[in-house]
Amino acid sequence: xxxxxxxxxxLGGYFGGMLIKGGAxxxxxxxxxxxxxxxxxxxxxxxxxxxxxxxxxxxxQQDQLNGTYDVILLSCKAYDLDAAMDAIAxxxxxxxxIVPLLNxxxxxxxxxxxxxxxxxxxxxxxxNAALMPDGTVQQSQVxxxxxxxxxxxxxxxxxxxxxKAALEAGGIPVQVTDNILxxxxxxxxxxxCGATIATLxxxxxxxxxxxxxxxxxxSAVIDECTRVVTELGHPPMPAFNAAGQLAGLFSQPDSTYxxxxxxxxxxxxxxxxxxxxxxxxxxxxxxxxxxxxLQTYEISRSKPS
Length: 305
Fold this sequence. Notes:
There is one protein chain. The chain contains 11 helices and 12 strands. The strands form 3 sheets. It has a 5-stranded parallel β-sheet with strand order 5-2-1-6-7, sandwiched between helices. The chain is globular. The chain folds into 2 domains: 2-178, 3-Layer(aba) Sandwich (Rossmann fold); 183-302, N-(1-d-carboxylethyl)-l-norvaline Dehydrogenase, domain 2. The chain has 305 residues and is of the alpha/beta class.
């Protein structure tokens, strides 16, 4: 199977690199600057156990696509989805399968409409990684390494099992599930809680834990998000226990953990607020406050210096 990874950033670089480690045929669809960097330095992925993956990689730019691929890994930011779909369209056939690893859930409907339901599977990951200024991909020390894929209609397919085998050969455990949409909502629930907490406090988890009102605030956000996703027909799954894991992350005084929304704000980048927690804001006052905070951040960020 030929894999195309859209981008070689935090998730694209991590998943693509681990696929290569397992022997898969991977090409990265990247912009010119990243292509030059990868050609010069190779792909460098620093893993949780202290080891380092260094490998030469194949790259292609959007105007150079000259073939099609069996599996396309989509790990862009939610606000880049339209551009991402345009970029991968020339690389797809009726047999290609698109595996999205985006935050939120709304992207599934857009992908189904653009490429047909049969060419899209559900996917999620809770692997935490970051693209460093020198171009290396750094996996964080947060030990929540969950990746799952599954057919949207719940059947267990050969293509999902093949993707699972390729990822696990590189060292990424993967669950193939018959309820991927429920699991995606569970991840979205956890993402919304973490993004709301971090956006309103503008702080890493350890700072929140040390604040006198930190624990009660975290609990209030989790309770509110639990109520909202339950009203929408997707109550949190006890077996997954996203609420418990999140409460634990924000109870460690020395933790430097920060969700991706906070990292983007710290670095002055655009955020996924409107495309993720914006889906819940009309039903949740705390989430609405976080959304407003993000909106004012975006306004301030876009002002000329």
